[in-house]
Amino acid sequence: MIAAAFRSGPSLKEDSMAGLTKFLDIDGGRIAYDDTGGHGPVVLAIPGMGDLRSEYRALRPVLQRAGYRVLTMDVRGFGETSAHWTDYSAHAVGRDALALLTHLDAASAVVLGNSFAAGAALWAAHDAPTRVSGVVLLGPIVRDPKASAVVKLALAIGFAGPWRVWFWTTYWNSLFPSCKPTDHDQVKAAIAQNLKEAGRMKALRTMMSLSKADTASMLPQSKVPALVVMGSKDPDFADPRAEANWIAETLRAQILMIEGAGHYPHAERPDEVAPRILSFIDGLRG
Fold first, then answer.
1. H-type helices in 104-239, by residue range?
2. pLDDT-derived band at 257, boundaries 50, 70, 90
3. Residues with Cβ < 8 Å from 232, sequence gap 6 or more?
């Protein structure tokens, strides 16, 4: 019953109708975000590169029903956030997150980050430890992967021609190995449409080319309570379990492995992920 409820809703259309997009103007551009409002503790969710803030459409209502005020933002380059920036790093996105929390006068927040945005969550905590009370790292990419010459060649070819949007969305589709949300095709189409807008594919290629060495070197200094959520079949890692263990040991974090899930465990298997996230966040308030 619970699993069915998660997988059947809300749809992308219902999620987008939950509230009008809000914008925060900062130096260099503007950040698009959603805000459920209310006076509850704040949770800020940041999507991965090339994706949209709708990736949290399954978690947001669960967190809201539990009494939390939920913010979801589009990262630099994607969604309704400005496409053109001089800096697309995880650290820059972390500063955007802090700017949003400051703008909304949020004294403290738990920050969720998927993929490269896990680094953004950690940078936000590093730069403002009193404002970030905890982080949830979903399929976290926080260090440079070891890519073979074949993989590098495939990426170069994939992003070289007019097929680049198809290439990215096909890759994105592969990140859901166990099951796909009911509105998966609709979300895929929305991502493809967004990447066709001026400057967004360039932002994606730039973001992919950036080293994560600065984030990796910062990890041992982190003191923020953290939960690492990793799918056991996440194709972005040669050994997802080993990567999760390394991150957890470095951060002294908790781990939740989702058997059979890929790079978006919170969208693929929200019925398993949401209760653990709630337990983690609730524990920070104890």
1. 117-127, 149-158, 164-173, 184-195, 200-209, 213-218
2. very high
3. 240, 241, 257, 258, 259, 260, 261
- Pairwise CA distance, residues 222 & 121, whole Å: 11
Q: What tens digit of pLDDT does each residue of 34-82 get?
A: 999 999 999 999 999 999 999 999 999 999 999 999 999 999 999 999 9
What is d(CA 132, CA 42) in angstroms, rounded to the nearest whole number? 10
Task: Please report, as a single letter, which amino acid is at residue 40.
Answer: G
CB atoms under 10 Å from CB of 176, counted, come to: 21
Q: Is the pLDDT of residue 146 over 90?
A: no
Phi, psi torsion values for 73, nearest 5 degrees:
-125, 150
Q: Strand 109-114 relative to strand 69-73: parallel, antiparallel, unpaired?
A: unpaired
Residue with token string 């990890």: 219
For each of the domains in the chain, give its residue range(s) and CATH number, in order of start: 2-284 (3.40.50.1820)
Number of Cβ within a 10 Å radius of residue 127: 14
C-beta separation of 256 from 273 below 8 A: yes
Q: Are 32 and 74 spatial neighbours (Cβ–Cβ below 8 Å)? A: yes
pLDDT for position 10: 52
Return the DSSP state at 48: P
pLDDT tens across 92-114, in order? 999 999 999 999 999 999 999 99
Which candidate, 210, 191, 200, 194, places its Cα nearest to that of 88? 210
Do 115 and 208 contact (CB within 8 A), yes or no?
no
State both tokens at 176.
């859901």
